[in-house]
Sequence to fold (162 residues):
Amino acid sequence: MAVADKFKSIIDFLTSGFNDREDSIYGEMMDEADEYPVQDNLALNPSFTQSEQKSQSPKVVTHPNYRGYEVMVCEPRSYEDSISIVKHLKDRKTVVLNLHLLDREQALRIVDFLCGATHALSGSQQKIGDSVFIFTPVNVALSAESQKSKFLRDALWNQPQA
Fold:
């Protein structure tokens, strides 16, 4: 009989979680269900309350002079267009300059003039393609990876594993 008592105690232990308890949450829910009239398991007149949420003002405000970063793509047709490009730089806008519409002499004059203006405004400049340049104001950092550093990086990381 000891074996039968062991099986009975194991089965009682396993099924004890399924027994009805009076302190269970289901009993509380059944008590609350009696508050509402129901028909076909649907509440007819549920009572609920709606609380108003107070709208909070945003804690982040924008600076009145902040216009964001702006990039201007310019394709000048003559040397006189370089004056408007310098105005963009003075307004702290990044300028991408595409000189494919100009002959070599005028393109060199414009690049020299804009390099001087950018230097005077403490900005930076970089050639990024064939007859394409970028000029940035002082508030924009310009960094580029040189061919030599690319070669050294690739040589370092692409070494055969021993």
Notes: The helical segments are 2-15, 25-33, 82-90, 104-120, 147-157. The mean pLDDT is 78.
